[in-house]
Amino acid sequence: MNEPERASIGASRSWAQAYSDMIYWKFNGEPPAWSVASAVGFMERVLELAKGARVLDLGSALGHHAIELARRGYDVTGLEWSEAFLEIARRKAQEASVPACFIRGDMTCMGFDKEFDAVVLWGNTFAMWSDEENLRVLRGIKHALRPGGLALIDTQNYTTLPAKLEKGWDFHPQNRSLLMLTEGTRDVLKARFGFNVLALDLSTGRRHLMPFSWRLYMLPELRRIIVEAGLEILRIYGDDPKIVDWKSWQRGDPSPYTPEGYTENAAKRIVLCQA
What we know:
Blueprint: H1 3-11, H2 23-28, H3 33-47, E1 54-58, H4 64-71, E2 75-80, H5 83-95, E3 101-104, E4 116-121, H6 131-144, E5 145-156, E6 167-172, E7 175-187, E8 192-201, E9 207-215, H7 219-228, E10 232-237, E11 268-274
Parallel strand pairs: 1-2, 1-4, 2-3, 4-5
Antiparallel strand pairs: 5-11, 6-7, 7-8, 8-9, 10-11
């Protein structure tokens, strides 16, 4: 599928505005350096990457993890739909003198063919689409990996839809004329949850609506579509605070997700798969 076709598919989706407008991302902040280093350290440990390994970072956003992976000696390609994100990621890579490659594309219709040793899908990106599209993402990961290649898929460990929909507001820290309104969303019939962000520019009256929504997959459902995509689940990692040790996390040590830490109390459900 060519670039204009991919762009038109993405632009037709309700979430397109959320990934085209930097207002929310500047409001919500960027991850601190120690958090990026910690996540990448975990990726290195679990994926057992050899120096020079080819890594695909799906939904690479502002490039933090891709740039850190490249800084550590890996051949990294970041795939991102948002031109706004890509512009920032490329600038950050250039400023850091890091040879990370960032390309525009839609992860629901990738055309890679056994090109990568590892694929990383990090940061609450998976399950944003329909069931059919989520399955296509997983199949795309399968085709992108060389035989025996590994993938890390990061998901939130929700076990039910939210019972209460939270609402809130705040002023944007960099622009006090922007009022940020947030409201949780839930669709019981489609098993989806998320939140909408509405930024009101009090000086101009302009409205910026940024919707975020994810499909809630219980573990048996998630296992089924991963296997249907042709991937094998090797391990599932979690972060139950009663089990894992987070004392060294803010020093930038690898995130201490463990298989034992995957319990009903875990906030994260990180799946290690093999092609």
